[in-house]
Write a structure and sequence with these properties.
single chain; six-stranded mixed sheet; 28 helices; Ubiquitin-like (UB roll); 48% helix; Hypothetical protein af1432; four-stranded mixed sheet
């Protein structure tokens, strides 16, 4: 076969992702900028280079080359995306605030506020003390995201910075290489994918994969080369037939083969549990047309040429992906017994697919389709910025972002016909929060294609979802068990934390008043000056913070009471009043938990023990762990059940039965008939003749459990029924 007949592979064009080392000096960068920037702006870039070179003077990278080569290379990558002069200048200066004596004021004076903000946006928080490197990295990421919300060019600079660092990772220590590669695969490559920048995503993934798993990368890359070499003739024939058919139908199109990367092969082998041969036994091609109309015509042409595989067609032109990606996907039965995967899109869509939001600057104005990817990226980042305000922990925020960097979407319809895209495995509850936070907070059920369904029901593309709400409904902690999207989880957590704080303040007030009462005092008798002095000594701004800390077990009420009385000038002595028990209703959110060792129920005699951060852990007074817990008597809290207790509580039953068919179903039916929900069932002992089954149940109170036990005993199939632990 001649070279002219060889299939044309689709790979990122040199202008999309320049090779490492291509930009070696400022003249090479200026030459690339001359393709699209006026001379006066190139002069500004040269001025920025002079400032950066002087600021980094004497600094070297681990490879030994002058440090300025790194920001120059980053600027070269961004210049290949045709980004504006301010972004190029910020790229050249992006490490100056972090690694040199240059200040933000100096940057602003020389290059303007925008450049200073871009540089500051990618600068790590090195001047703040953190408990761990993970916390520092998470807070730096949070800072960068807030800067991204103001200007998307911040993330473009960061991605180009990370790409060049990955290309030159060999000079780093092995531990640092693995840490940076893992962070790249977990955060930066998914962000590039979420922003539609597939060329960046692909190279970041392959570089990260090669660093973390060098042997696997080498083996898979070698096998890909081998397979492609053996298929050259078959691929050339398919490409030729596609081109001929499109030309015969009068469609102006470019056809090229698509080559899978080592990382995509490896990740699919793991996710889909397929062998290398199964994944590579596919011919991939891309058809790029000059218009949307021709894209749909090309779909008809290729379906006429080869028979399509049923159920394998997706229209991402009519319904774009969340990152703005648009294309027609179809799978055909090929002439060599292997399927043919074809992507069909316009030239503009192809540019957006490779460059994502960066195509917005390539088109220069608001006329290109790139604005779809750009506006969707702004929506996504704006949503993250809104949600981060509800999270106090940077590590929790980072985990929240990771949840949002989903690999696949489901596309759903509202009753009005609007389209919402959610992450794979999203539930009706996630859909409710995607519509509006208030809708999520008051959701009670959903109608999926008209049929009533619970909030935990998983959704599939194409379904029409209607959320049923009730004014009295409110988020529950168990919603976090099936909420998938970051928006839903953040909103639920924020709501529960607010309720937890309100309950903690009220409960902490009762605990402190009880402790003060035993000393013959009360909060009303403590002078405001003494209370303010105590709060200042313990770095607390308001009384509510102190009361919440008491309820959550972070401060002991007896100690706080004694110190407040002492500050008041009274003598602290022994208890002057009988200590009254604190009544609980069981609904105190976030400050009460129930020991799994004894599963206390309303009606049981109970006692509480303060656990730092968790609040009061409730135990039955006959719990076997009480002697151990009583070694810290200062943490003991005398409590009792209120008269009116509502809700379901967990209990366990130990049921001894004859081991014969149908016994489990009979017992389960009796439990259900008693109005109880079974959470879990397991056999603790089993022989050919007998078995012991442990049921984890939900009951209202001790009386409900007793009624349930009597009903199970009356089935006639059990030898014994006991509350567990006894």
């Amino acid at each position: 076969m001649t070279a002219a007949n060889a299939p044309t592979p689709v790979t990122p064009s040199p202008s999309a992702l320049p090779a490492h080392g291509e930009i070696k000096d400022i003249d090479a960068l200026a030459s690339r900028l001359a393709d699209y920037l006026p001379e006066e702006q190139i002069t500004r870039v040269r001025g920025a280079y002079a400032v950066g070179e002087h600021a980094h003077g004497g600094q070297k990278r681990r490879s030994g080359e002058p440090y300025i080569m790194h920001p120059l290379a980053v600027a070269g990558i961004l210049a290949s995306l045709h980004l504006d002069a301010e972004t190029i200048i910020a790229a050249i200066l992006h490490d100056t605030l972090e690694d040199t004596g240059l200040t933000r004021v100096q940057l602003e004076a020389s290059f303007g506020t925008t450049v200073a903000e871009l540089v500051d946006g990618v600068t790590k928080l090195d001047q703040v003390d953190f408990a761990s490197r993970q916390e520092a990295d998470a807070e730096s990421f949070r800072k960068m995201l807030l800067a991204m919300a103001r200007d998307l060019r911040v993330i473009l600079i960061k991605l180009a910075d990370r790409l060049h660092n990955m290309r030159t990772l060999g000079a780093m220590e092995p531990d640092a290489r693995r840490r940076i590669a893992r962070e790249t695969l977990e955060i930066y490559a998914p962000i590039a994918a979420r922003l539609g920048m597939n060329a960046f995503k692909g190279e970041l993934q392959d570089l990260g994969f090669r660093t973390l798993y060098p042997d696997r990368y080498r083996v898979i890359a070698a096998r890909i080369r081998s397979v492609l070499g053996n298929r050259r003739e078959a691929m050339a024939r398919i490409e030729g037939e596609l081109k001929a058919r499109l030309a015969a139908d009068g469609i102006d199109a470019r056809v090229a083969s698509r080559v899978k990367s080592p990382y995509s092969i490896w990740s699919k082998m793991r996710a889909e549990r397929k062998s290398f041969t199964q994944l590579m036994d596919v011919y991939g091609f891309r058809v790029v047309t000059d218009s949307v109309a021709h894209a749909y015509q090309a779909l008809g042409s290729v379906h006429a040429l080869y028979k399509p595989v049923e159920g394998r067609f997706k229209d991402f032109i009519a319904i774009p992906k969340a990152n703005g990606y648009q294309s027609l996907h179809t799978v055909l039965f090929g002439p060599f017994g292997a399927p043919i995967e074809i992507q069909i899109r316009t030239g503009d869509m192809d540019a957006v697919a490779e460059r994502g939001i960066a195509a917005h600057w390539l088109y220069k104005n608001d006329t290109g389709p790139s604005n779809s990817a750009h506006s969707r990226a702004r929506e996504w980042i704006s949503g993250l910025a809104d949600r981060q305000a509800a999270l106090t922990s940077s590590l929790e925020f980072l985990e929240n972002v990771k949840i949002d960097l989903f690999p696949e979407d489901v596309y759903l319809f509202t009753p009005r016909g609007d389209i919402l895209s959610l992450s794979k495995n999203a539930t009706a509850l996630d859909f409710a929060y995607a519509v509006h936070t208030d809708v999520g907070h008051h959701a009670v059920a959903a109608r999926i294609d008209g049929a009533l369904a619970p909030l935990r029901a998983q959704l599939a593309s194409g379904q029409t979802i209607e959320i049923v709400t009730a004014p009295s409904a409110a988020p529950s902690p168990h919603w976090l068990d099936f909420a998938v999207t970051g928006k839903a989880r953040t909103a639920i957590r924020h709501f529960l934390k607010r309720l937890q704080h309100e309950d903690a303040v009220e409960f902490g007030h009762r605990m402190l008043e009880r402790a003060l009462d035993t000393l013959g005092s009360s909060l009303d008798l403590i002078p405001a000056e003494a209370l303010e002095q105590y709060l200042q000594q313990h770095s607390q701004r308001r009384l509510e913070e102190l009361l919440s800390d008491i309820a959550l077990g972070n401060r002991l009420p007896d100690q706080v009471a004694a110190q407040l009385v002492a500050l008041h000038g009274a003598v602290v002595g022994t208890a002057m009043h009988r200590r009254e028990k604190i009544r609980i209703s069981g609904s105190e959110r976030g400050i009460l938990s129930f020991g799994n060792c004894c599963h206390p129920l309303p009606g049981d005699d109970i006692v509480g023990f303060l656990s730092p951060g968790k609040g009061i852990v409730v135990h039955r007074t006959e719990c076997p762990n009480i002697p151990e817990l009583s070694r810290n008597p200062e943490r003991r809290v005398e409590i009792e059940w209120d008269r009116n207790v509502q809700g379901d509580y967990r209990a366990q039953l130990r049921v001894e039965v004859a081991n014969r068919p149908g016994v489990l179903a009979t017992v389960a039916a009796a439990i259900a008939a008693a109005g109880s929900n079974i959470e879990n069932v397991e056999y603790s002992e089993r022989s050919p003749f007998a078995a012991t089954i442990l049921f984890t149940l939900e009951v209202k109170d001790r009386k409900h459990l007793a009624d349930l036990i009597r009903r199970v005993r009356r089935t006639g199939v059990v030898n014994g029924v006991y509350r567990y632990p006894v």
